[in-house]
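User: I've been going back and forth on whether these two constructs are worth ordering. Before I decide, could you fold them both?

Assistant: Sure. I'll take them in the order you sent them. The first construct and its structure tokens:
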Amino acid sequence: MNPSSLLWVWTPLFAGLFSGRDSRPDLTIPVVLYDPSNVEQILLSFRDVYANEGRRSITIFDIAHFPDDSSWCYVTDAVNRSGLNPLRGLGTVTRKPFIDLSYLYRVPAGETGREVLALGARYHDMDLAASMPAAGRPLCSHLHDAAILAHAEGLTVTGILVAESNVSRFDFSLFI
């Protein structure tokens, strides 16, 4: 894939953990930071991307707790357990009143992905996480919110979860 065609979105937790890394990915790839406290702004940013570049793919990175020894995975679907809808209150901003999430995530051909539980800001509440029936699914924070907003603006989303313990040695070259 041509790095000039890439756009990465990092959730706050991913960006925070990544900031301690010794090595950086190819910084010619634009990185958008998802700010859950300003969803209208990120929605409009995604709209600008679509207006300037059309229906393009973006990759959203988030951290996760895995129930096994996985170091990362593609996301195929997410169960929103955050208690919030990222589109709530944005009816005057979004293009459509209903967003079909049936095919929200794209997994590259030949790859497999996993269904995850999206906890939003409650991600670090391990008592809550332990009480949820995860059925072997990874737990993540804001990936699903960012994906819904990007999808609402016509972008194709690839979701990647990285284990918290693996962020420091995560190999971005796999996605360039």
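The second construct, handled the same way:
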Amino acid sequence: MITAYCNPKDGRLNIENPTPFKTSIQGLRSRRHVIEIKEYSARRSNGANAYYWTVVIPYFCAEWGLDPQIKSHGEYMHYDVLGQELRQIPDELRPGKTKTQTTHDMTGSEFWKYINRCGKLYFDNFNGSFPPPKSLGYDTDAK
């Protein structure tokens, strides 16, 4: 995957560092490619990650009778339960199929939206809610 950062101005894309981008384009095979442009958002913050693993995952584990201190229980909840329920996206290599989106590749805003979907799933299934991140001192800003 080739990543380039740009700022649109007057209907044109001004690539911030064009030389590596042009070099990467020249190295592409003669096949059909897709160019996707999305608004920049910083990666998720350490606070978001900490909130997810110390609040969201343990709340779900508790409802399932799993010990979140046991690494395999937390990973099961993250990968197998929440991954299958909330992070399915179309698989571009297998039309009509889905794959599990990794949280590692999410931007900060995407990760908080995912956490909010976890909260909705938790409420719908267990009629409860997570404590607000800021009330526990977790940073909710993407960095």
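Notes on the second construct follow. The longest helix spans residues 46-64. The radius of gyration is 19 Å.
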